[in-house]
Amino acid sequence: MSNSVNDASMSSSKKKRIERQKKHENEKRKKVLSKTILLCIGVVAAVAVCFFVVRGLYKSITKVKPSDDFSAGLAENGFIDGVKAADYVTGLDYKNMKLAKADVEYTDEELQADIDSLLDAHKELKEDASLEVKDGDTVNIDYVGTVDGEEFEGGNSNGAGYDLEIGSGSFVDNFEEQLIGTHPGDSVTVKVTFPDDYSSEELQGKAAEFAVDVHGIYELREFNDDFVAEFLSDEASTAEEYKQHVKDTKYEENLESAIEEKITEVSVVNNYPKYLKQYKSIQMYQDQQTYEQMNQMYQSYYGSGFSSFNEYTGMTDEEYEEDLDTRAKNQLTEKLAYQYVLESEGVSLTEQDYRDYLKDSYGNEDQFDSNVEEFGLPYLLSEQLRPKAVEIIKKYVTVE
């Protein structure tokens, strides 16, 4: 029998019952669907909440806080505790290091410039009235400036004496030229006109007079054996010996600097040990100590300091954290590189290394106990990684 016959013969009450059943099932499916949607929304919300909670917890856990525990995370020999530097450092082939001669050599021109500076530091003030001021001379003067007969701020040397190089352009135009031809002991009047764009608005375009006393003319001494004997006897006994001493010393300094720069240039660290966080904490502590010291100095000299650490650094908290991270990683890369050299050579550091450093730098070990108490011996030894590694690399480096 066909379905159409069955439908036709179905009672009206049965049809209504079937329709109610279908309607009930539709409503049931809608409720299940609504619950499913709400559940999904709840899961998504929960995941989001968990994400922010976990992220906040992670930030709280990883947040760097200042620490003055300088030796934390370091072994007794100053190495990073539990770290093999070779596992972190790549690119440093220190046994085949090559440096350019131009980066290391100390030229004759540089030597002469250093000698000239030395002579200038020991120049003598001559008060002989027969001497005459010439262009290029350095004279010692006192002066009192007036505009319309009245002294003005900054126009008086107050008897302290002022060293002025004639022709340097240090003073207002035409001031220095008017001293040419004068003699020690002379008192002269110098007349000038301040330029229209002068820094002090009150003096712009004004005519002024300066009462100037010429005390003397500086003369440079000759660089000879007598000069060395008087001022440089601890380093040499003759002028030629001193020149060679300076050449050797400067060459060594240039060589060490070039080695350090090359290490920084070629050393690569992609992943850092856990010690990075402690190192950043130490750096942050030192930054804050510097801030406090600078603040005190500004308050002492100027009556006011920085309103906050952010004002001092010129950075927001986020910017400072990024800067701190960059600085710490750069410095830690170098420390790992130096440690890598010592590990490769089988060299360690001991208390005696730091004692030797104090003797070489200060001539005694008086600061040893106080420094160890403040920083801990491991940290002090970690600061000796660089010079020790550089000294080792000197044996291998080629200058060409």
Structure commentary:
- The structure is a single chain.
- This protein has 12 helices and 10 strands.
- Helix 6 packs across helix 8 and helix 8 (317-345) packs across helix 12 (385-393).
- It is an alpha+beta fold and 400 residues long.
- The protein is extended.
CATH class term of the largest domain: Mainly Alpha
What is the number of independent domains? Answer: 3
Q: Quote the distance from N terminus to C terminus.
A: 109 Å
Radius of gyration: 39 Å
Class by helix and strand content? Answer: alpha+beta
> What sort of overall outline do the alpha carbons produce when their principal axes are compared?
extended
Q: What are the segments in which pLDDT stays under 50 over at least 5 consecutive residues?
A: 1-10, 43-61
CATH topology annotation of the largest domain = Trigger factor, domain 2
Share of β-strand residues: 5-15%
Mean pLDDT: 90
- SSE topology string: HHEEHEEEEEEHHEHHHHHHHE
Question: Per CATH, which architecture of the largest domain?
Answer: Orthogonal Bundle
Count the E strands.
10
The major beta sheet can be summarized as:
6 strands, antiparallel
Number of helices: 12
